[in-house]
Design brief:
This protein has helices at 22-36, 59-66, 77-80, 84-97, 116-149, 174-188, 193-202, 216-232, and strands spanning 3-10, 39-47, 71-74, 100-106, 109-112, 161-163, 170-172. With 233 residues, the chain is of the alpha/beta class. Helix 4 (84-97) runs antiparallel to helix 5 (116-149), helix 5 crosses helix 8 and helix 7 (193-202) packs across helix 8.
């Protein structure tokens, strides 16, 4: 009987999502291994781990990569890999070692890479998943730009603005706008971010959070974030 390791993962935000929970994933993996005659050695769990981390950098993922089994079983592609490059690099190494990847939910069908056809479908699936992530990022970026262009909040309230009572519209903050103009002037004069921070402190200008201590990275962030809104407008 061929040996298999199961792998389940949820990020913190997904803990309570129906169908994504650790218990739901484990149940599907056990049922699949029984159906396919695979000896399930262990189910490795990465709880509260972002899918943006490469498999090798996760505690459970590193164990999966070093294990000596015939198969790795997961419910979906995104439980294992952050992007197409990570997927193809790992599965190429597994293929060299004779380890097959089994994915249980690929558009309603299962997939395993023990055959050339399965490996081809995995490559296509990884590419389409990467495309979908790219489209989501583009849609999100466009939506945020639209909100900024119309003077609406898109993220945190930028330095130089105050949030209106409706909780969405941005209004100019006169004192912060003056400070922002000073920051830009000092930057144009060749001052470093650290030097600007010291100047702001000397003049008693406070941060967005009301602190009288400025950091160089805070000055840089104020400039970059304000430019996003003004460029959109």
């Amino acid at each position: 009987m061929k040996t298999a390791l199961g792998y389940v993962r949820v990020s913190t935000d997904e803990q309570a999502t129906e169908g994504i929970s650790l218990e739901a994933q484990e149940e599907k993996i056990r049922a699949y291994c029984t159906l396919k005659g695979l000896h399930l050695v262990e189910i490795i769990v990465d709880a509260g781990v972002s899918g943006g981390k490469p498999l090798a950098s996760r505690e459970g993922g590193s164990r999966i990569l070093s294990a000596k089994v015939d198969a790795v079983v997961a419910v979906k592609l995104d439980r294992l890999f952050r992007d197409a490059a990570d997927c193809l690099a790992v599965t190429k190494e597994w293929d060299r070692k004779g380890v097959a990847l089994h994915l249980l939910d690929m558009g309603g069908n299962s997939l395993d890479t023990s055959s050339a056809m399965g490996r081809m479908f995995l490559t296509m699936a990884a590419g389409f998943a990467e495309m979908e992530r790219g489209l989501i990022r583009e849609r999100t970026r466009t939506a945020l730009q639209h909100k900024r262009k119309n003077g609406k909040l898109a993220g945190k309230v930028p330095f130089g603005f105050t949030l209106a009572v409706d909780g969405d519209t941005l209004l100019e903050n006169p004192s912060e706008r003056e400070a922002l103009a000073l920051i830009r002037q000092l930057r144009t004069e060749g001052k470093t971010f650290r030097g600007i921070a010291r100047e702001l402190e000397a003049r008693g200008i406070r941060t967005k959070q009301g602190r009288n201590k400025w950091q160089a990275c805070s000055v840089r962030s104020v400039l970059m974030y304000s430019q996003r809104y003004e460029a959109a407008g």
